[in-house]
Amino acid sequence: MVNQAETRLIAGCGYLGRRVAERWRSSGSDVVALTRSPDRAKDFRRGGLTPVVTNLASDTDQQSLPSADVVLWAVGFDRTAGVPREDIWLRGLERLLRRLPSAPRRFLYVSSTSVYGPDNGESVDEVTPPDPKTDGGRCCVEAEQLLRQYCSRLFPSTQVVMLRLAGIFGPGRLLRRVSELQSQTPLPGEPDQWLNLIHVQDAVRMIDLVSSAAAVPQVINVVNSGTVTRRQYYARLAQLVSAPAPVFESCADSARQRGGNKRVVSRYRGDLNVAFEYDDVLTGLEQAVAAG
After folding, report:
1. Is residue 256 classed exposed, middle or buried when 0-12, 13-18 and 19+ CB atoms within 10 A define those classes?
2. pLDDT band, very low/low/confident/very high, at 88 (cuts 50, 70, 90)
3. What is the pLDDT of residues 136-176, one digit of tens each?
4. How far is C-alpha 180 from the geometric centre of its chain's CA atoms?
5. What's the pTM?
6. How far apart are CA 121 and CA 101, in angstroms?
7. Treating both helix axes as pointing N-terminal to C-terminal, what angle do 175-182 and 230-240 enclose, rounded to 10 degrees?
8. CA 155, CA 67: separation in Å to the nearest integer?
9. Which residues pair with residue 248 across a beta bridge?
């Protein structure tokens, strides 16, 4: 393990990134959090983080960044912001890289299991070639390539790690689906498709481990072992919130529209010796409902 008294920079300090920041801060690291919002910056500072107000979607913003031992990119896509996905996930990533004053020891990129293409129910792992079927998956593949190429040229000492996360669930992430279940609004997608998920606390656990471990693979699928179908997941959620049984709205292209029907597994997780608290998805669902 490396010295925890490091500077760690997070781009994307939201649902996942904020939890990682709090874990790193409690371990003694100086955590720098990027944000576009001065109000969020004040909140970060109150929480013991070092905020930097900057807009990675703008070429005119040249706010300097501090040197960091570890950089975490955990930027989501806000459909309400009116900014194309590529402006943040590609050009925003490149802007961040250009503004780093020195090579980090490790650059952790939160990618997505949507980079994988099979849609016939088969299993995929880290050696499965990417073949994305969605815009988000294609953008993730382009961003992964951009990051590798940039670091190989300008930061050859930096280890780049792609963390391909399944769908994140946890407290505060269920309200929309609970509302749909209670109103019996049909849920899109085939009920017997695999639903690849990771509880947010286990995603944080993996990111924290990978930030400090002496040796890690270049690509890691971050996903629960206890994969369930959409029917199993939403039936259990309906029971937990005393809602009617789920109703599904199937369509011929639903698997392709949602990134394919595949079961994502990790061949490397066992080597990392990380134990997930909610490896059983339905147990994690119970915790998420109970925690609100």
Report:
1. middle
2. confident
3. 999 999 999 999 999 999 999 999 999 999 999 999 999 89
4. 24
5. 0.93
6. 45
7. 80
8. 13
9. 187
CA distances to 20, 33, 105, 202, 225 from 275, rounded to whole Å, are: 17, 27, 25, 8, 11
101 against 250, higher pLDDT = 101
Structure tokens at 116: 């994988």
As a whole number of angstroms, the distance between CA 245 and CA 67 comes to 52
**Residue 287 exposure: Cα atoms within 13 Å on the Cβ side:** 15
- Mean pLDDT value across residues 267-273: 93
Instruction: Give the model confidence (pLDDT) of 168-200 as tens digits.
Output: 999 999 989 999 999 999 998 899 999 999 999
Q: Per residue, what are the HEC states of the chain? A: CCCCCCEEEEECCCCCHHHHHHHHHHCCCEEEEEECCHHHHHHHHHCCCEEEECCCCCCCCCCCCCCCCEEEECCCCCHHHCCCHHHHHCHHHHHHHHHCCCCCCEEEEEEEHHHCCCCCCCEECCCCCCCCCCHHHHHHHHHHHHHHHHHHHHCCCCEEEEEEECEEECCCCCHHHHHHHHCCCCEECCCCCEECEEEHHHHHHHHHHHHHCCCCCCEEEECCCECEEHHHHHHHHHHHCCCCCCCEECCCCHHHHCCCCCEECCCCHHHHCCCCCCCEHHHHHHHHHHHC
The answer, yes or no, to whether residue 242 has pLDDT greater than 80, is: yes
Q: Is the pLDDT of residue 252 over 90?
A: no
Of 80, 260, 237, the closest CA to residue 174 belongs to 237
> Rounded CA gap, 292 and 161, in Å?
32
Phi, psi of 100 (to 5 degrees): -70, 125
Distance (Å, rounded) from C-alpha 14 to C-alpha 21? 10
Q: Looking at residue 258, what is its pLDDT?
A: 52
The closest of 208, 195, 186 to 108, measured between CA atoms, is: 208
